[in-house]
Amino acid sequence: MKINLLGATGSIGTQCLDICRSHPDITPNSLTAGRNYKALAMYAREFSVRTVCIADESLYSALKTELSDTDTRVLCGREGLCEAASDKNADMTVNAIVGAAGLLPTEAALKSGSKVALANKETLVAGGSYIMGLAKRKGIHIIPIDSEHSAIFQSLQGSRDPHGELRKIILTASGGPFFGKKREELKNIDPEKALAHPNWSMGSKITIDSATMMNKGFELIEACHLFGVSPKQVEVVIHRQSILHSAVEFSDGAVIGQLGVPDMRIPIQYALTFPKRLECPAQPLSLTACGDLTFEEPDTETFGCLKSAMKAADAIDTTAGAIINGANEVLVSAFLNGKADFWDITDGVAAALENVPAVPADTVEHILEGDRAGREFARAFLSK
Ligand code: NDP
């Protein structure tokens, strides 16, 4: 099987390449990155890929020079990403880009008729109604990579009528590094503290999203789109150990969940090999070694990003998701660069949702406009 792997140099991308190394019949066809052209060139050589694309156009020549003695085709920019995403030489496109930059490549892959495995949750947060509609028209089932959504997807496999039988989704959350604390106790948080996630090693943006719980809010929206449920059917439960990756409750009260060690290679590989299961390089789970498993309610007053996402989910067919996602990207980036306080993220997202008007998210233009307006609002919020 051949894959177009977008975001190949990131946390999910490199773990996906690990799976390709373990299963040589899964081979990358095209690889993309944002700016890291050296790593991209290295992987292109290792896997002799057909196409590479660097999103930052100013690095095109540097990447071309790195690969000048190979047959690999070199692309750049947004158009290049969409071309790499829709390269028909592959059987599936894996989108592991971070942020709303993943939206158009997802669209391009679906339009080309490619199967899509999606880690890039921002695609669905910003443009879920449009993207799911497109996937439906094309007869493509988007396979989730996010561990929670993979767990839900796996838990639903035994049901012959998932829509009729599914009562609710139990979306588990580690709670991030600051769980159990109140806002007054969480002053002067620097990026180093916020990046110290208790269970998962991930890219910096999603790690900050986990610390603010924006990530769980995004996952709630993602779950509504992927599984066709209303926000009221999604219960967020804090589960500090990240062993139960999420569960579903059926109409008879039976709860089926998926457990495993917190290792993204399991859901990534399942998305690639579905419906088959193959050996995976991840450690097996020892239930006796993992100790107590605990479940608690989230604190949506302290972690206001989760509350904002719940409000945005109530307007799921509008650009509310694109607005909060765009604002969040600007605020997180400012926090990581020492230009914003940790709580500016929570407050800026809530203010963006309240002040930027949302419209139906039925076209890509509307979604991109929502994203732009959310970013502009967040910049103005920070400059006050
Ligand atoms: P990383 O930051 O580690 O990697 C992001 C990838 O996207 C890199 O290849 C990066 O290239 C590329 N990229 C960055 N900006 C752009 C851009 N503007 N255009 C095109 N490509 C770009 O992120 P993660 O791997 O952690 O996350 C990727 C996605 O998967 C996110 O949506 C995240 O929410 C989701 N996810 C991640 C999990 C994890 O465990 N990491 C778990 C579940 C979901 P470069 O290296 O050159 O910057």
Describe the structure.
- With 384 residues, the protein is α/β, with parallel strands linked by helices.
- Helix content is 46%, strand content 14%.
- The chain has two domains: 2-120, NAD(P)-binding Rossmann-like Domain (Rossmann fold, 3-Layer(aba) Sandwich); 150-383, Rna Polymerase Sigma Factor, Chain: A (Orthogonal Bundle), CATH 1.10.1740.
- It contains 16 helices and eleven strands.
- A seven-stranded parallel β-sheet has the order 4-3-2-1-5-6-7, with helices on both faces. It has a four-stranded mixed β-sheet with strand order 9-8-10-11.
- Helix 11 packs parallel to helix 13 and helix 14 packs antiparallel against helix 15.
- The longest helix is centred in the last third of the chain and has 20 residues, at 364-383.
- It is globular.
- The structure holds NADPH dihydro-nicotinamide-adenine-dinucleotide phosphate.
CATH class membership of the largest domain: Mainly Alpha
And the CATH topology of the largest domain?
A: Rna Polymerase Sigma Factor, Chain: A
Spatial order of strands in the largest sheet? 4-3-2-1-5-6-7
Largest sheet: 7 strands, parallel
**The number of domains:** 2
Radius of gyration: 20 Å
Number of DSSP-assigned strands: 11
Low-confidence stretches: none
**Could you state the order of secondary-structure elements as H and E?**
EHEHEHEHEHEHEHHEHHHEEEHHHHH
